[in-house]
Write a structure and sequence with these properties.
alpha+beta, Lipocalin, eight-stranded antiparallel barrel, 3 helices, about 30% helix, globular
């Protein structure tokens, strides 16, 4: 009987680990308002917990993890115009139907991210409706998986 319970526990453990590994892969940003709109923004969630994301203008590096079904990106460096910068910010994406949507961003988080961006682009200015506009635009975008990595 103990042997049977041990086998069932092992099978459950293996199935759980496979579910956690299913997030590794490549993603492309799209817009929820119009699914045909695709941005040139990609996100690669590597098997070792590192990620690379960005477009032709900027590349961001950091670590990623899944917590309570949410994707958490912890950025630590970025390259803009062939210059490397240290950054420190966190983005949290909610998993809805296997798409990652940016969770609502607080005003404090927005201002902290603007401060990080100003380290790289010091002349950037915040528009009058910067926070509200940013929040509306960013929460309408999502990452959709285009390639799954085999991490075994």
């Amino acid at each position: 009987m103990r042997f049977l319970i041990a086998i069932m526990f092992f099978i459950l453990l293996v199935d759980t680990s496979k579910a956690q590994l299913s997030f590794q892969g490549e993603y492309r940003m799209r817009q929820a308002i119009n699914d045909s709109v695709s941005y040139n923004v990609t996100l690669k969630l590597n098997c070792n917990g590192a990620y690379i994301g960005g477009d032709s203008l900027q590349v961001v590096y950091g670590k990623w993890k899944i917590k309570n079904g949410d994707l958490i990106l912890l950025a630590d460096s970025t390259i803009v115009n062939n210059k490397n910068y240290h950054v420190n910010y966190k983005l949290v994406y909610e998993n809805i139907d296997n798409r990652f949507y940016l969770k609502s961003v607080s005003k404090k988080e927005y201002l902290e991210s603007i401060a990080e961006v100003r380290k790289v682009l010091p002349n950037i200015r915040e528009s009058k409706n910067g926070y509200q506009k940013y929040k509306a635009e960013e929460t309408a975008k999502y990452f959709e998986k285009i390639l799954t990595y085999d991490c075994h």
